[in-house]
Amino acid sequence: MIVVVDYGMGNLRSVSKALESLGAPVRVSSDPQEVAKAAKLILPGVGAFPAAMRELAARQLIDPLKASIAKGVPYLGICLGLQLLFERGEEGQGAAGLGILQGVVKRFSFSLQPVPGSQIQNPKSKIQNLKIPHMGWNQVTINQKQCPLLKDVPDQSFVYFVHSYYADPADRSVVALETDYGGAFTAMVWRDNLYAAQFHPEKSQAVGLQLLKNFVEL
């Protein structure tokens, strides 16, 4: 059973409907015991980083999430569900994240410098025309072709984003996809059983469904 974690933030129905269309067994739940027993976990999210961490804590979901990831349960974070994996988010007064990955979640400033090891060294974006939030369709550049969730996902595919903050991983080896928006930023991370996308697969049409299908088939 795939459990879509309900912590009061995120378009849970869109995610669950996309999974159901693929024939996957899905349950939306805020029960810590169901989260702890899940065969796979999806943490979606739209909203503020500090509020999300408060809601996870209030529902006693932090420990079962971290324990499941630590024991190898496949995890897919979506949008805020990617950002919360990191040590800290700068939104508002700032807040500690789950701390599973090293790094900070930062607001777009459009002073991004070339990232060592990035596949995007010559950004095409015109900085003066960019707006926050980064909203709409944008292309992804594949960094980790061996990532299981990217099977049959073409390089430079278009996916759908809605966000004002982006994750800046301390370890660049976890970056599976990048996107150009005033410079390169992390669009997807992957490490072992841990997968997370800054974009919304459930809103990204055929490409997003392929990614979700790959997660279902892990």
Count of discrete alpha- or pi-helical segments spanning 4 or more residues: 6
* Rg computed from alpha carbons, rounded to a whole number of angstroms: 16 Å
Global mean pLDDT: 93
User: Percent helix among the residues?
Assistant: 10-25%
Q: What structural class results from the helix and strand content?
A: alpha/beta
**Low-pLDDT runs:** none
Name of the top-level CATH class: Alpha Beta
User: CATH H-level name... which superfamily?
Assistant: Class I glutamine amidotransferase (GATase) domain
Dominant shape: globular
CATH architecture: 3-Layer(aba) Sandwich
Q: Which fold does the CATH topology refer to?
A: Rossmann fold
Distance between the termini: 13 Å
SSE pattern, N- to C-terminal: EHEHEHHEHEEEEEEEEEEH
Q: How many strands, which pairing sense, and closed or not: the largest β-sheet?
A: 8 strands, mixed
Number of strands: 14
Number of domains: 1
Amount of beta strand: 25-35%
Q: How does this structure look, described?
A:
- Helices cover 23% and strands 30% of the residues.
- It is α/β, with parallel strands linked by helices and 218 residues long.
- It has a single domain (2-216), classed as Rossmann fold.
- A hairpin with a 5-residue loop joins strand 5 (86-89) and strand 6.
- The relative contact order is 0.17.
- The model has no long low-confidence stretch (mean pLDDT 93).
